[in-house]
Amino acid sequence: MNVETCNLVPRYILQPTFSRHLLLPVLLLLLHAWWGCCHPQCLDYKPPFQPHQPLVFCKEYSKFGCCDVEKDEQISHRFYTIMENFDHSGYVTCGRYIRSILCQECSPYAAHLYDAEDANTPMRMLPGLCGDYCSDYWHQCRYTLGLLLEDSESPQQFANLTATIEEDRRKFCDFLELKDQQYCYPNVLTNTELNANLGLVREDPKGCLELCLQEVANGLRNPVAMIHADDGTHRFFVAEQLGYVWVYLANGSRIDRPFLNLTQAVLTSPWAGDERGFLCIALHPRFTTVRKAYVYYSVSVKKQERIRISEFTLSVHDDNQLDHSSERTIMEVVEPASNHNGGQLLFGHDGYLYIFIGDGGRAGDPFGKFGNSQNKSVLLGKVLRIDVDNNDDGAPYSIPSDNPFLGEKETRPEIYAYGVRNMWRCSIDRGDPATGAGRGRMFCGDVGQNKYEEVDLIVKGGNYGWRAKEGFSCYDRKLCQNSSLDDILPIFAYPHKLGKSVTGGYIYRGCQMPNLNGLYIFGDFMSGRLMSLKENTTTGEWQYTEICMGRGQTCRFPKLIDSHYKYIISFAEDEAGELYFLATGVPSATARTGVIYKIVDPSRRAAPGKCSIKPSPVKIKGKLVHFHPKEGKGNPKILVTFSFFLPQRPAISTTMPKTREGKLWIGEKLESAGEGNQVYKKPRGKGRGYKKGRDGRRLRAGSVRLVSTDGLLDRGRVEIFLRGEWGTVCDDLFSAKAGSVVCRQLGFTKALAVMKRAALGEADSSVRILLDDVECEGGERSLLACKRSRVGKHNCSHGEDVGVICG
Ligand SMILES: *[C@@H]1O[C@H](CO)[C@@H](O)[C@H](O)[C@H]1NC(C)=O
Ligand SMILES: *[C@@H]1O[C@H](CO)[C@@H](O)[C@H](O)[C@H]1NC(C)=O
Ligand SMILES: *[C@@H]1O[C@H](CO)[C@@H](O)[C@H](O)[C@H]1NC(C)=O
Ligand SMILES: *[C@@H]1O[C@H](CO)[C@@H](O)[C@H](O)[C@H]1NC(C)=O
Ligand SMILES: *[C@@H]1O[C@H](CO)[C@@H](O)[C@H](O)[C@H]1NC(C)=O
Ligand SMILES: *[C@@H]1O[C@H](CO)[C@@H](O)[C@H](O)[C@H]1NC(C)=O
Ligand SMILES: *[C@@H]1O[C@H](CO)[C@@H](O)[C@H](O)[C@H]1NC(C)=O
Ligand SMILES: [Ca+2]
User: Fold this and answer.
1) Looking at the chain, which residues constitute the CATH 2.120.10.30 domain(s)?
2) How far is Cα 686 from Cα 393, in angstroms, rounded to an integer?
3) CA atoms 198, 199, 202, 203: torsion sign
4) Residues of the chain with pLDDT > 70: what percent?
5) How far is the CA of 377 from the centre of ligand 4 (A)?
6) Which of 153, 606, 698, 730 could bond 800 through an S-S bridge, CB–CB 3.0 to 4.6 Å?
7) Can you give the pLDDT at residue 208?
8) Is 483 in the pocket of ligand 5 (CB under 6 A)?
């Protein structure tokens, strides 16, 4: 990414000659760019997460970051491999720099620090440091840079290039610094603005939650519903208004033969806004054993418009097709007008079929004395509940014995709730994945008349107020003031300046977006607005927050997009609980502009591996149509995005850049850091044999280190560096005085204990024994200055390796 975008206002803006009418757009553009800058993202281009288990090495990223335990282990291994090159003081001085630099791969801002936000440009090999930090690093440990770059494909080249910049702080830091002082390491950790809500859903300056989308299917004609079979296949079934239902496999491929083709029977038209048509499908909740589907659609019978709820049985020959000759009508309701046909069908957790029927149409529910919705002797304007189990002989359905109005005079026994106008999209809460809280709640959007749209929580026997009330306000004053109304108010209502036709959604209970758990996400068909409600469990109130598309860089993850078609027709949940919505650019039953979008939180994902699913196989007859994303560069006029401008999104490849590219880039940077491409050559030892200690000084003969399996710095088996290698000291006569020489060499004041006979560990046989028979006075500068046998000459084994505890 371009680091300049983080600098808010360039100087030319302040120049008076700057044309005034250009000022605002430029400011907005800059704000926009600033806003898109520096969001949490990992090097795999995905959002950060909380690892399954706490990290052992890069501990500070255990709560939220980009590493799981495996990655953490790799980094730790790399660290200790690098640290093998150091003696104790080198370890103390440079260890923390090396550790911090390596651990930035786990930072939630890793992509930013490594310049990896744009998948099309090469990334850095090392994270971007802040200037002060880089200077400190240069002063204390500049010669360790080569070790950090050592894993590269051409270490010789790096030897050349690092050698040139190591000598020059400016060049060195040009190479390592990220110029933006807010978002470099370590300032990024203390930036309050960045860290205030780290890991939560990102909000724009107005508090709008910034989410992204992934296109899942396209080319659909007014897709009205998407359901799953809950049978382990993770298939999804998508209904189009004109009467088709299509099967999509878990991988997004569509079966070319329709699951259901009711186009001939369905009553609809191509005109935009026709509410008639195929409106819903529900599969039996035990679909694996009861292979039945229920559909809800408009028909014309003897020139009379009706809605029909009917049952189909799965084909015995094909698991992906209904038996078209098996239709059995469950119920028909005459529609006095062509609008307000309701259209939701779903099974509750009680196993009963719920049917949501509109008030019959026209404005203000004009039929009868007080309309249909408050008239319990009609099915219009109601939520019905029926039992369709065991209906193979006799009546197509029965009435559940606990239906609320059973036995009431002039009341249809199917009624579960009433006073609804035209409920469009209802859902059942799966419940909190951990506690089960909320499970079974039924949410609906109820489309309003001309002032308010509402969201209702449907309970048994509830009166939802229409036509006495619209939202919280009175619509029919007389009915509204009648004390016997006893209605249930919506959990939320919004005025028509926000939208004119609510599309009910779902409570998110999936696995992949932990931030969204418990959030009710819904939308508006007319305004294209996405919205959310979250329950305050203390007060029971539902708090509204708008949802908007992530700005700037926020959605620049592979496959993600930040815009959608305006007409939000429906919401859906897949078998795993992930959330989708269905929208179109032209709301006509014949326009193929319908798209299914998956809702994605770019701020946090679940720990890798946590949400993996294994779809059970499906026998397929017929051909498959593979999915090709189309959206994201659509016509801006009919897309909804939330930005001051529509930024040009560069094409994003969905693969990581080849590591070679990254390395080339580093090479180029290094090269330009050298003077006029003149690369100064400095001989370099082979691989790991190249030894440098603190402040870049080569390890001196006689340097010592303590080796311990538990990583403690103050104790361990004594090793000494001689003739280019580390070897042990073995001696049964090793004294406390010799021990204190070792400890002082390492920067401690004295030896607390000397351990013989490998009490602090035994080196393996590949390590040479270098010293024996050491007798120190206690004042020597190093073990080599003590009385001792010749290097390499000894009469002991590793069983007598010595160790010390320093203090
Ligand atoms: C290193 O530098 C020397 C001379 O400066 C040059 O001849 C050699 O090709 C360089 N090696 C690499 C790998 O760039
Ligand atoms: C999706 O899965 C089906 C069945 O396993 C397979 O035949 C098809 O090729 C897959 N589609 C893609 C795009 O991989
Ligand atoms: C759907 O059915 C209609 C008539 O019943 C037929 O004309 C049409 O070809 C069918 N469509 C598909 C995709 O099978
Ligand atoms: C309720 O509906 C029934 C059936 O349509 C009708 O006969 C009756 O008059 C209606 N009641 C009122 C009060 O409008
Ligand atoms: C209030 O409503 C009830 C039942 O809906 C009705 O019987 C009664 O007449 C109404 N009262 C008034 C004052 O309108
Ligand atoms: C719930 O509402 C109470 C009272 O208004 C408020 O103090 C509390 O912070 C709210 N809780 C959340 C999680 O918003
Ligand atoms: C090793 O040799 C030294 C003399 O060089 C002698 O003092 C010591 O006892 C020997 N140790 C063993 C274990 O044989
Ligand atoms: Ca209401």
Assistant:
1) 209-625
2) 85
3) negative
4) 84
5) 7
6) 730
7) 95
8) no
User: How far apart are the C-alpha atoms of 78 and 150, rounded to whole Å?
Assistant: 11
How far apart, in whole angstroms, are the C-alpha atoms of residue 66 and residue 356?
A: 45
Whole-number Å distance, alpha carbon 172 to ligand 1 midpoint, is 19
What is the rounded average pLDDT of the residues 27-41? 56
Closest CA to 124 of 104, 143, 154, 144: 104
Q: CATH 3.10.250.10: which residues of the chain?
A: 655-806
Residues framing ligand 4 (Cβ under 6 A)? 368-370, 375, 377-378
- Could you say which of 3.20.20.140, 3.40.250.10, 3.40.50.1000, 2.120.10.30 is the CATH number of the domain covering 209-625? 2.120.10.30
Q: Between β-strands 530-535 and 519-524, what pairing exists: parallel, antiparallel or unpaired?
A: antiparallel
Beta carbon of 800 within 6 Å of any ligand 7 atom: no
* CA-679 nearest atom, ligand 1: 5
DSSP-derived secondary structure for 663-729: HHHHHHHHHHHSBTTBPPP----SGGG----GGGPPPPTT-EEEE-TT--SSEEEEEEEETTEEEEE
Q: What is the DSSP letter of 790?
A: P
- Provide the token pair at 23: 């000022």
Q: What letter represents residue 147's amino acid?
A: L
Residue located nearest, by CA, to atom 1 of ligand 2: 251
Contact 248, 217 (CB under 8 A): yes
User: Exposed, middle or buried: residue 69 (CB in 10 Å: 0-12, 13-18, 19+)?
Assistant: middle
Give the least confident one: 250-259, 394-403, 680-689, 782-791: 680-689
Using the mean position of ligand 5's atoms as its centre, give its distance from the Cα of residue 408 in Å. 17
Say how many Å lie between the CA of residue 596 and the centre of ligand 8.
29
Instruction: Taking the CA atoms of 241, 247, 253 and 254 in sequence, report the sign of the dihedral they define.
Output: negative
* Domain boundaries 655-806, corresponding CATH code: 3.10.250.10
Positive or negative torsion for Cα 336, 380, 571, 319: negative
**Side chain identity at 280, as an amino acid letter?**
C
Q: Which atom of ligand 7 lies closest to the CA of 796?
A: 13
- Average pLDDT of the segment spanning 464-470: 94
* Ligand index nearest the alpha carbon of residue 242: 3
